[in-house]
Amino acid sequence: MVLRRLLAALLHSPQLVERLSESRPIRRAAQLTAFALLQAQLRGQDAARRLQDLAAGPAGSLCRRAGRFRDAFTQELRRGLRGRSGPPTGSQRGPGANI
Asked: For 75, phi and psi rounded to 5 degrees?
């Protein structure tokens, strides 16, 4: 409790805050924080621009891609089910299993 009050009193001192802001470690931390925020903002804008370009592409391009994905997925699923043998005996659960 005493430490908390002491720290609060120190941080509310304008002279101390001024001296800390001029120190090399605090300036470097501020630079790194600003750099990280700027990079995140630029990457977000780039991702938004790519999404807009993808959506504004040729009419139906996104629908065709989704359809191709759906077709490929169902084809792979069917191929996997065909290649699989029947379930081993005793593996069924639920009412009426293994009667």
From this structure: -65, -45
Dist CA 85 CA 56 (whole Å): 46
**96 or 54: which leads in pLDDT:** 54
pLDDT of residue 99 exceeding 80, the answer is no
Residue 12: phi, psi to the nearest 5?
-90, 5
What gap in Å lies between CA 29 and CA 23, rounded to an integer?
A: 10
Global pTM reads 0.45
User: For residue 6, what are the CA distances in angstroms to 2, 11, 12, 18, 26?
Assistant: 6, 9, 10, 18, 20
- Per 3-state DSSP, what percentage of the chain is helix, strand, and coil (rounded to 5)? 75, 0, 25
pLDDT score of 92: 61
The pLDDT of residue 88 is: 56
Structure letter (DSSP) for residue 43: H
Contact predicate 35/41, CB 8 Å: no
